[in-house]
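User: Okay, second chain of the day. Same drill as before: sequence in, structure tokens out.
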Amino acid sequence: MILMGRPLRRFELINAGTVDEAVRALSKYDGRAWPFAGGTDVLRVLRFRPLPEDLMPDALVNLKTISPSMSYIKEEDGVLRIGATTRLADISRDPLVRSGYQALAEAAEAVATPQIREMGTIAGNISQLPQCLYFRKPDDRFHCARKGGSVCYAQSGDYRYHSIFGAVNNCIMPNTSDIAPALVALGARIVTNKRTLEAEGFWDVRVPGNTVLDRDEIITEIQVTRPPPGARSKFLKFAVRKSIDFPLVNVAVVRGDGVARVALNAVAPKPYRAYAAEEVLLGGGSEEEAASAALDGAVPLQMNRWKISVARTLVKRALLMASGRGAEGGGP
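Assistant: Same drill. Structure tokens below.
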């Protein structure tokens, strides 16, 4: 197969009929088989081959063929349940999500382009590989710390868009999922074939795969408890090109009587829960004070200090909007 002039790496396609069948296929290949549904990130990996050979997939396990389908949106007993293969476009348009879980709908709507949202899935968006330009360089030209090397090339190179909260295992790659901060702010749970994980503990930035998932583990469902009556949520994103780019900073908040949750992304190697900002709000502090507190622990480098002012502005604006006192709008 040829994609934009570069051949895809050869792979075996396995159309799983059930979750158990998908898990057996993943186990058979001992880490060399990857699950996929929309394929928007997997195809990039197969085309550009940024990983060392021993980390590249030999097989893809298709989750879209599983029956019953894992593509659905429903609410049961005050809990929103979204199947892992549900498309981002469907989430962004769903009346139930838009009415009760606004930050999630807005985050889904902010991902990439309409074409990507019609293919990409919620599980895929939170499981995507790091977007660092050195990590993604074709043919593993930069065998960086995240891939088993010893050097984070971004730290002495172009780190304008990287972490302002320091490195993890010598890596300052930012997590660039739009869905991730919304799930963290909403206190979501991620259900797999093995366990149920709190969204905040889903990412493991010490491994190339970027998540805590085992080699034979797949996401089956996302669960979100409806926010308390009167609480509102909001998501905002700042990117160079609003209609297509990964976020340079994004934020999701939930706010109501006795409720304050603030999560940022694209500012650290994994979604950043701003506990200090939440404490300010619960203590009666202003949105501006909370926004400043959200960035208190930042340790930016010279070329990405601009992220602090952008993040502070987004937090303040999102909190004001969630309280009904801010104007709808985009980035700073």
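Residues 306-322 form the longest helix (17 residues).

User: Thanks, on to the next one.
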